[in-house]
Specification:
Number of strands: 12
Number of domains: 2
Helix content: 40-55%
Pfam families: HTH_1, LysR_substrate
CATH topology of the largest domain: D-Maltodextrin-Binding Protein, domain 2
GO molecular function: DNA binding; DNA-binding transcription factor activity
Largest sheet: 10 strands, mixed
Protein name: LysR family transcriptional regulator
Strand content: 15-25%
Distance between the termini: 83 Å
Structural class: alpha/beta
Keywords: DNA-binding, Transcription, Transcription regulation
Domain HTH lysR-type: 1-58
Shape: rod-shaped
């Protein structure tokens, strides 16, 4: 039986008329009458009879009233329970690995200020992969790298690709130049290789990984120099500035909601979080806060 028809049926019982029942359920009187006719057709019983000028319930109508109250009570209880479960479900959030140590903790802090003590399950993967997972409904939202000037999501910050390495590294004088990069879907990967090839600088691609931890590990071990976003660089490294190292592109980092986002993570919440993140950048600038050093050297390309 139609739950809404049963709700209208009980509204008639409680108010004593179709006119008042229509007002209570925000329907027209003709719509209420149609619902009652469909109930009678489905049950093959008359639910109403005239008593003088009044319309009252038949015996079958009285029986249905008892069942209807129980059915509606169970229905409303089930809906309420399931909605509460949906609202209390963990927030499934994606983030590229290179932002996980530097940007993500502060971002999660802002999210919890807006959403309260919500559990956040974090998956680290490339921006390309995270977009695919959001489209499949496997993530509610993600922090992504986007093209500068794009209107995708809510802008969190502008960033710049940089070359980095250990302080006083001698790797810049080696040929082939040992480098560690992200996978090919990273903008810095193509820019680094294309630039080195264009300038005829021989290189040795020591590692190619989707993990920032792996790349930093190669650089920290003195095996290579790396390329990543300035905000992702750890404080034990220095930014490398030499004339012959190819420039790396600028990027934007944005908060993007999935088509089916978390019930609590609305567009307004996302906008507020991104605005707070942007506003706090001058105070919490990652590079400045970590005391990152810029290394300028006159080493020439052989």
């Amino acid at each position: 039986m139609d739950i809404e028809a049963l709700r209208s049926f009980l509204a008639f019982i409680d108010t004593g008329s179709f006119t008042r029942a229509a007002k209570q359920t925000f329907r027209t009187q003709s719509a209420i009458s149609m619902q009652m006719k469909k109930l009678e057709q489905e049950l093959e019983k008359n639910l109403f009879q005239k008593a003088g000028r009044q319309l009252v319930l038949t015996h079958e109508g009285q029986q249905l009233a008892s069942y209807a109250r129980r059915l509606l009570s169970l229905h409303d209880e089930a809906v309420s329970s399931l909605r509460e479960q949906a609202e209390s479900q963990p927030l499934l959030f994606g983030c590229p690995d290179d932002y996980a140590e530097t940007l993500l903790p502060y971002f999660v802090s802002l999210m919890r200020q807006q959403l309260g003590p919500i559990q956040i399950q974090i998956l680290c993967a490339s921006s390309t992969r995270l977009r695919q997972l959001m489209d499949k409904g496997e993530l509610h939202a993600a922090m992504l790298t986007r093209q500068p000037g794009s209107d995708e999501g809510h802008l969190l910050m502008h960033d710049q690709g940089i070359w980095y390495g250990l302080p006083e590294t001698d790797l810049l004088s080696r040929r082939p130049l040992p480098i560690a990069l992200f996978q090919a879907d990273c903008k810095f990967h193509a820019a680094a290789l294309d630039g080195l090839i264009k300038q005829e600088i021989s290189f040795d691609l020591v590692s190619c990984s989707s993990s920032a931890t792996a790349q930093r590990g190669m650089v920290r071990a003195g095996l290579a120099v790396g390329a990543m976003a300035r905000s992702s660089m750890s404080p034990d490294f220095v930014e490398l500035h030499v004339d012959w190292l190819p420039p790396l592109p600028g990027i934007e980092i944005a908060l993007v909601l999935a088509p089916q986002s978390h019930p609590h993570l609305t567009t307004q919440v996302a906008r507020t979080v991104s605005q707070h993140f942007l506003a706090a950048l001058p105070k919490t600038n990652v590079a400045k806060e970590q005391g990152l050093v810029v290394m300028k050297t006159a080493i020439k390309c052989e």
